[in-house]
Structures are given as structure tokens and as C-alpha cells.
## 1
Amino acid sequence: MNNHDGINFLQWCLPRLHYRWNGFRKVRRQVCRRIKQRIKELNLSGIHEYQKFLEESEEEWNILDSMCYISISRFYRDKKVFQVIESILFPFLANQSLVENRAEIRCWSVGCCSGEEPYTLQLIWKLSVFPLVKQHLSLNIIATERNRILLDRAHKGIYTFRSLKELPVKFLREGFIKVNDEYLLKDEFRENVELQCQDVRLNTPSGKFDLIMCRNLVLTYFEKELQKEILERIVDKLRPKGFLVIGAHEIFPKGIGGVTNYRNMKCIYQKSS
Ligand SMILES: C[S@@+](CC[C@H](N)C(=O)[O-])C[C@H]1O[C@@H](n2cnc3c(N)ncnc32)[C@H](O)[C@@H]1O
């Protein structure tokens, strides 16, 4: 499959699966590699034969859908966002929980990949924010992901330096044990992170949340209608004054009620009280 055929194929199939071609454009190689492998498994001659096969097999669309994901993530990705979470959002939510007599802050990480995002939150909370909160309060995170292979990696908690290079040295030093060339996340930072295999198009974890991280998935890869439907569900899951964080390069769609932009920060929204 050459580059041109790959692009044509994705432009044809992605909208049928309610994905946005624009989201996949720059990172399409991951998906093309999986499709090539699938063509080999099916013993087909190439992408044109695969396209014909799809037209005759409804089931194959589900398999193609399961190949359309991008597994790029890093600890502390978009550092400014995590700095704001550390210095403003967590202290605000900690105060809010104490005023309301709650012993936990609840967070949902949507499309958590191999755990980079929820574990970053737990590192920040346990190493930086919690020591300043002089009362019993825990950060409980539900991290959902559709892909079981990525979830298994999250369970193992072993990373290469590449996915950790943006993490401040303090968190790297105190959060990980170096094993040969890799880094193992210490058990204490996996506590209170519940990993669940879930497709955000179909399921939502139960209960309300103080903080929802929905970055680099829904607003990048899903088509507009689907974005709105999922975002409305997500906003509904926020507690009053809770925060929704979207990706640093994502645009919040018009017409979603219930949240307002927080202090002019492009990717942070707060639920109205
Ligand atoms: C580009 S990564 C972003 C990871 C993380 N949120 C971040 O910003 O670093 C997108 C993740 O969403 C997962 N994903 C894709 N479709 C999904 C779906 N329908 N439901 C849940 N997770 C999904 C992918 O497997 C991948 O791990």
C-alpha cells in the first residue's frame, strides 16, 4: 500500500466510522501499518481488494474500527496544563471537598492509553499537593481505555525514558524505580487508579467527577456529531464547579451548555454551579 492509496483509503473509510480524517492525517502511519498487517492476515492482494472485502463484510468494519486508534501519550504531556492542575485546580478541588465534608476528589481520565495521564495526576497529587493538604483526602481516578493491550501496559506500569522525558526530575526520581533501561512506577502511585476497559462512545463510568481529562481523543478523532453527544454526557458527569480539561490543541465545540471557559485558559472548562 503506497502513501497515496493509504490516504485515499482512510478518506473513504474514516467518515463511515464517524472519525475525522483531519485528526488522523499527520499520524496515519500507525493505522496504515495495522491495516497492512490485516491485509496480510486475510491473504488479500492489497488495499483495493481489502476495500472490496469491506463492502461485502459487515463484521470487518468492526475489526477496521478497532484498528483506528492512535496510541501516542506521554507523562506530563503539555506541561502547562499539569502546572495549572497542580497549582490551581487541585488546591481548589481539595478545598471544595473539605468544605463539603468529602474525603475524596474523583477524576476520570478518558482514553488513558498506557496510564501516562492518570499516573501523572497521581504523582502530582501525592508528591506535591497532598503534603500541603493537612486533612485526610484521597484522589481517586477512574481511567478508561478501549484497547486491552494498552491497558495491560498500564497495569504493568513500566515505561521507557521517551515517555517520561517531560516529567519534572523530582517526580521521576521519587515516582519510579529504574530497572535496566526502563522505569517501573512505584506501587503507591498506582493505588487509587482504577483501570477500566471501556469505549467512550458506548459507556460512561458511574458517579460524578470533580475533574475529567478528555484530551487528544474525542475532539481530535471523532466527527462533530459524535463529539457533541459524548461531550454532553461528560459535562453531565461533572460535579458543580468541577473541571473538564481538553487537549492543548483542541477546540471546544460551540453549543455545549453547562460549562464555561476557566480564566481564559483555552483547554480548561468549569461546570456551572
Ligand atoms: C492519542 S491517545 C491520547 C492519550 C491521552 N489522553 C493523552 O492525551 O495523552 C488516544 C487514546 O484513546 C484511546 N481510544 C481510542 N478510541 C477510544 C474509545 N472509543 N474509547 C476509549 N478509548 C479510546 C486510544 O486507544 C488511545 O490510547
## 2
Amino acid sequence: MTPIKNKGKLTVGLVSLGCPKNLIDSEVILGKLGEKGYILTSSYLSADIIIVNTCSFISAAREESYEVISRIIRNKSPHQKLIVCGCLPQLEKRKLFSKFPEIDALLGTSDFHQIDKVIEKTILKKERVFSVSKPQFIYNSNFSRLVSTPPGYAYLKIAEGCSNRCSYCLIPRLRGSFRSREINDVIKEAKDLATMGIKEVILIAQDTSFYGNDRGEKNYLSSLLKKLEKIKGIEWIRLLYLHPLHFDFEIIKLMKYSSKICRYLDIPVQHTHNDILKLMGRPPFEKTLRIIEKARENIPEISLRTTLIVGFPGEREHHFKKLLKDIEKLQFDWLGVFTYSREKGTPAYFMPSQLPHEVKEKRKKIILKLQQSITEKKNRERIGKTYPVIVDIALDIDLMKEGEGHTFFQAPEIDGKSVFKEPFSQGSIFQGKVKEVKNTFDLYVCRV
Ligand code: SF4
């Protein structure tokens, strides 16, 4: 990464929608523009150039993107430029121009790094730009990146795209086939992050377990972890999105003996009934079960997270009952549920027995209610125990706002938080004793 210079030109504001993978793309956009001398502002509605980096993997995400774009269009002046990037232009292509004639440029998931040239064209030559190519790009450590997460942690994208073909998923179409970054390039970026004071790196990809397979490498993820552990300043390493099919059991061994790799596994199971998993194009449930058993056998205090999809075509009452029973049995620390979203261009779109919206919503509610009781119970078991906490937001006495941080068993932004009322500086780590459960998800902690 190169340092960002500010030459004081036009102002740019960016809205990043969707997941942390998209957030990194947004950070690369901001890095590039900062390097070119644009003034970056968080009040995006008043910026000369407004960029929206969109998400569109399910209809709810598309709706959110449309809403944000419409709101900006309603509030912006004709002199302000509007650029839409990411998954939505990749999916809808030029149709977005017809839907929103006020958009000045569209850039796909492999084109956003050319943002500076696109801005020059729209501003200087007053051209309307359409740049959506086949998804093949992945950034590297030579790109500037403006890290936007709190000072203690940063995401690190180790690969882009996906070569699995889950029958419901649009992501391979939006992001292309899986492509891993070279290990030394990831290490170089991690060292740069450590130099900036980042203590925790969170490794992400569509399928983190697959890292290196596209390069014909074996145990590439374990090798990466071993190298990351040696970086001075990096104290925590967290893994997200570990698809069960390619999971390397060596990771559990590394986690067990490492003082840096968080004892935390995020394994998207999606369902537990093999009839449904087969229709989804996912590995049988036993594969995930073996990982969970091995992980708990070796690391009893490990924190487990998963995601589910309910209401998949053909999911009958007995399939759902099994899912419910397994969730009760497996006792995940954290769990997210999506209702199945019927997406054109995916095999599941044509599957018979599509379920009504109300059934899907009802099943989601039932799972969430069950999981809330499990998460709350697990949080109660932590009362009186001490854990290191990274400070994400410092206590603000003037605004009467409590401080917020996270432990190894809480992934920032997706799991519950550790809340405190003492003055710790942002990005620091303190030993926090769990005093009580604030609500189902969050904990009150205090200095030991
Ligand atoms: S693993 Fe499946 S659900 Fe995840 S991005 Fe790839 S195709 Fe989509």
C-alpha cells in the first residue's frame, strides 16, 4: 500500500453496501482517489462525486441498492456526478441507465479500480461511462487502500470469486471464478496493515477454505496462517466463510496451538437435511458435522458461527424439523438466517415446489427465536470469565455513549459486542471481565 496524498481537488463521497468483501473494494476505490488528490468526505450527499458501491446477490440487497441510488438522485444537484459500482451494474448492465438516467457512470466488479479514469471522463469530457467487463480482477498490495474499519482491525481479502456452483447463488456470475492472491502479496499487505497499527486481520473470500486450490497449491491457507503469525504487531488472525467442502483439518491443529489465530470458526452450513443440501449443490451435512466435532474435541472453548437458508424449494415440514433439531443440538454461538431468494439465472429458480413468502418468513422467525435462546445461554456462561477485548469505539462521556469492542469469540460487525464504561483508547486491547449480558447478544465487560 502506498500513502495517500491529498492535493485538494474535487470532493468524493462513497456509500459502501453489502459485505466486507465489497467494503474492501470500496477501500481500494477510496485509496486510489486519495492518491490522486481527491478530497474524501464522509458527508457524501454534499460531495462533487458520489459513488455507490452496490450489492445485489439477493433481491433484498438489490432493493437496498435501488433505494440508496433513488435517495441520492432525489437530493443531488445536476452538477454532482453519480457513479454506481459493483455487483448491481455487473448484474443489470446498461439496464441501470434506463432505470436511473441520472447515473453518470457504471462500473462492474472488475472495473472499479479504474475509477480515476472514469471520473476524468465524466467530469472533463462530460461522457457517460459504461465499464462492465468479465470478472477477472483482484487487487494486490500495490494498490492504495483506505482502511475504513475501526483502528484495531482490518479485513484482508485473500481471494475473489467462487468456483462452487450452489444452485441458488448468483455470486459466481457477479464475481467470476475463484482466484487466489499470491501468498507473499497477502503477507506484504498484512505487514503494511501491522505498520498502520492494525492488531487483528480478518481473512475473507467467498470460500476461504478453497484458498490456493486454483493455483494447484495444497495447504495454502495453513501456510498463509503460519506466515501471518510471524508478523510483529498482528496479534489476532480471524477466518471467515470457511466452506465445509474444502476445509483443511490442519487449521484446527494450528488454531489449537496458536496464540494468534482466533478460536473461532465460521462455517456456512445452509441446511442440515441432505435432501435439501443436495438440491442446493452443497456437501452432505456429515462433512460439516465432522468439522464441528473435531473442532470442539480439540478446542472446547471454540466459538462457532454459521448461516442458514430456510424455505429452499422443496423444503417440507420434516426437512425443516430436522434443521431445527440439529440447530438445537449443535449449539452454535452465532447464527444468521436468510430466507431463500429466488434468483433468475440460477438453477434453483426453475426448481418446483417454490415456497410462499409467509412460510419462509415463519421458518426464519422460528430458527431465530431458538438461536436467540442458545446465544443468550452461551453468553451467560461467560459471566465472570476474562478475555482480551479489542476496543472498536472508545467511551464518549460527553455524548453519553458506552465504549464497544470485541473478543476472539465475537467477529466485529456480525456477532454481539463487548460493551464497557471505562476510558480505553480505540484500537487498544484490554483484559475484560464479563459482568453481565447486556441483551441477548452483547456483553458488559470491565477492566480486570
Ligand atoms: S460457495 Fe456457494 S453460496 Fe458461497 S459464493 Fe460460492 S456459489 Fe455462492
